User: Fold these one by one.
Assistant:
Number 1:
Amino acid sequence: METTQSVRDAFDLSGRVALVTGAGGGIGRTTAEVLAAAGATVVCADVNAGAAAETARGIHESGGSAESAELNVAEIGAAATLTEDVVGRHGGLHVMCNIAGIMIDSSIIDLDPAEFDRILSVNLKGVLYGCQAAGKVMVEQGAGSIINMASAAVLTPSPGIGPYAICKAGVAQLTQSMAVEVGRRGVRVNTIAPGFIPTNMTARYYTDPDGTINEATKAAVVDPMAKHAPLRRVGTTNDIGYCVLYLASDASSFVTGQLLSPNGGVAMHY
Ligand SMILES: NC(=O)c1ccc[n+]([C@@H]2O[C@H](COP(=O)([O-])OP(=O)(O)OC[C@H]3O[C@@H](n4cnc5c(N)ncnc54)[C@H](O)[C@@H]3O)[C@@H](O)[C@H]2O)c1
């Protein structure tokens, strides 16, 4: 029974403070819920303040500890300000999840420079600012875990999402570069590269012009992907939340600079 107890301890986040960006929906919301269920106090941050507040409210209602904050990850200095505020009120920051992200659909040849700047600002610079803000605090503390959200698009390029994949490849590299710099100070940095997870981000593939989800179109998009995957399904936000929990917790204390790929087996790397 001692082993059972220590396994629970390894995944227990009681007494830890976690900041989750993009916590207003999709993968970020579920991740916030999972970390709170594991005992963390979770700061749910999102550019959509109302959605972030809704996530925090749901966590409260389930008996967890959470608060919400408005944060545009693309704004220089915003993550640093929020982080200082969190540390000032809670005494530390132990887990940083850089999950906020956007998608643009464009071929590389037709990519509009302004659109590229827009996606770079959120998906790559936003992650950098989050890493810097949390990294400074964690290096000072001598401990912490940073988890950055990339995508299977890094491993399996698809036509039309090249600008997104470029940002996510940058996130994977940023993770490795930072991991080698901060490891000796007790800080771990890892990337998760999810496969297809139905969320608001992917809904554009199967949303009718009036804004409703078209279930037939959704099946036409999702079913072939599931059929092609070795595990015969697409992912859920819980699949990713549990990966974040592993990387956030002491269970992964020997893991840094890695790219974890919950994708049903559609892309494999070694
Ligand atoms: N859904 C997938 O199939 C999939 C696959 C691989 C990777 N991802 C990545 O996972 C992350 C979450 O994606 P999702 O599918 O949950 O998307 P989503 O659209 O459901 O949620 C994204 C959240 O980020 C927030 N956000 C957007 N711009 C922001 C900004 N500038 N500052 C702060 N918050 C901002 C949105 O308000 C939203 O709440 C993204 O980084 C995405 O690239 C998603």
Number 2:
Amino acid sequence: MAFEKLIGQEDVKRRLSAAVESEMLSHAYIFSGPDGIGKMTFALEFAGLAMCGAPVNGRKCGRCRACQLGESGNNVDLRIISPEEKKTQIGVEAVRTQICDEVFKAPVFSRKKVFIVDRADKMNESAQNALLKTFEEPPAYTLIILLCDSVLPLLETVKSRAVGIEFRRNTDSEIIQKYRELRDESARSGSVLPEIDTSLLCAYADGLMGRVGELCADGGELIRARIELVEKLSDLYAGKNGAKAAISSIIDVRNKNYDFAFFSMMSFTRDAMLIARFGSKTEIMNPDLKEQLSAMARDTGYYRLKNALTEIDTCYRNLARNAMPELATDNMLIRIAG
Ligand SMILES: [Zn+2]
């Protein structure tokens, strides 16, 4: 079967494989599901299959020009459209020039010409209407895949002309399988990813494969930073100088890679609260850090930890729509400092 290298989403695999094997591809698909669930990974695999000149039993042949170019990421017959940097929308001009005009140029090396629209829910109404014209009479070689968190912002007329494919959150065992796969891959290339407790991994991933990838990126930098973070957070609660600046640089809101740091600060604080309330035998999310967290519980006390947890949680939830995330984070750190 196709998609065999990808973990989970069995229903999606079955439907897409059946379409490829029966050569009954629709000209448009909508992949929906939360960020990080693996829509782009599946879309690229699906595109590769559709473009292959000689698929064998629903698998890419790996030898044709389309497959070889696809392997190196250089197949001009695959186009990816996404909101421009710093723009929150995909406008009508982008859809016209990158899809509507391009669609009439036949594929050069491949069986299909594929357009993947990332964050398709960011297309404004006129962009969607422009796309609709292409949806109505596309050349036979066209395959358009729209990726979106939610189908709600899409016009009914767009939705009704495409096949909807819904992605579901992965199970914990699929998440663990993915982590092991990335760890083995990393070991083969000579680097060792730091260990992460499986219950912590699954709690953070929350069914999203992308989050596992995020944790394993750059040799597991985020997992390593977690140890430094627990020390600095203890220092902050104890009112030590320099702790705030150190935490700010670990959180790194500027690079938008702050989810795990916030998740960690909340889980440390919650664990310390539990220890403060129920003693050190209570079950916590970060058992490997029990010693530090017990000290944090003793030195900070239940009520201060509880207030800190509320502050961190509120700050995190508002961060994505905050115009000055660094300032908001700094203010939160000042409020929770000892
Ligand atoms: Zn091929």
Number 3:
Amino acid sequence: MLDMNGDISITVVCDNNPCKEGLETAWGFSAFIVGAEKTILFDADGDGSILLGNMEKLAIDPQGVDLVVLSHVHGDHTGGLDGFLEKNSKITVYLLKSFPTKSKDNVQAYGAKTVEVEQSLKICENVYSTGQLGRLIKEQALIVRTERGLVLITGCAHPGIVKIVNAAKDFLKDDILLVMGGFHLEWATRGKVEKVISAFRDAGVRYVGPCHCSGDKARRLFEKHFGENYINVGAGKVIDIADLR
Ligand SMILES: [Zn+2]
Ligand SMILES: [Zn+2]
């Protein structure tokens, strides 16, 4: 048994796919994770006012966040960071070593600490980064270790969603309970998506929650193949890991 701090719960604060009524759904992504040693915001959406507005509607206090982890430098994942730092700068921001110096300096100018991720690493008890993956567009994904397996949350999955899944498995040598976030299959052919689905099967992925840049066609195919283990993710979706069997 792992020494868990409580049940992990993931709330999708921002996504371009709608889920809960009343939330804004512009192009971007941000997820809020509670129940681990630290409270984490993964990605900061593209717009600070949307991020903070959705947080408020979801009764998430920005002051309660300990860490922000940024998957990659693109504006739809980092654009809301300044707005967030204006509300809470007593945090550590896990960004990538490859980020431009000016974005690192900007975070520090608010008084927040930065950690420059390069290799895979432990962020806090039971929470890890895959490390900086990919060549052209570098990206990290967040891994939460639970009693039921690994939960992998991706931003845009530019390095390739299958590559990220395999990197997480290789790193922590555990089964994958859930993969959620952007899978970057918006423009992928049906054949390509089916290859990804079969690679997920090979990797033993139990649940999927594709959103953001996954594309409607891919989401429908994942739903068809995963059936009741497909999670319809959008802004406001709450996933309690204890509910996944
Ligand atoms: Zn991107
Ligand atoms: Zn994106």
